[in-house]
Amino acid sequence: MNLQRAVFAIGLAIGIGACGYRSDRAVSDSSAKDPSSPAYKAGEAAHKIAKETEKIAKKAGEKLKQGAREASAGWKKSAQEDKEKRREQP
Q1: What does the CA dihedral 41, 45, 50, 55 come to, rounded to 10 degrees?
Q2: How far is CA 64 from the centre of its chain?
Q3: Spatial separation of the C-alpha atoms in residues 24 and 30, rounded to whole Å
Q4: Contact 21, 13 (CB under 8 A)
Q5: What is the residue-averaged pLDDT of the chain?
Q6: pTM listed for this prediction
Q7: What is the DSSP code string of 22-82?
């Protein structure tokens, strides 16, 4: 019985907290949509920087992947050459 009450109290607290959060959020959303506000401009700039960073990171990732492929190919070639040298030696 006490467990049921505790679960109910926790659920009630989360529900009330969520309702309060939404009403505060609705007020801040209306002021955040003003294109002339400094916060809006900062958000736009941050978004542009994030997109540019994403493109740069993608290119860097592709270069790293290509480098890893080349390193793997070199490793395999060297291993094959070592095997051939061992076979040639009596």
Answers
A1: 140
A2: 18
A3: 11
A4: no
A5: 82
A6: 0.47
A7: HHHHHHHHHHHT-TTSHHHHHHHHHHHHHHHHHHHHHHHHHHHHHHHHHHHHHHHHHHHHH
Give me Rg for the CA atoms of the chain: 30
Q: Is a pLDDT exceeding 60 seen at residue 34?
A: yes
Please state the domain extents for the chain: 2-63
d(CA 72, CA 70): 5
- Residue found by looking up tokens 């959303």 in the block: 29
In the chain, the amino acid numbered 38 is: P
> Rounded distance, CA 68 to CA 4, Å?
56
Residue 30 has pLDDT above 80, yes or no: no
Give the distance from CA 7 to its chain's centroid. 34
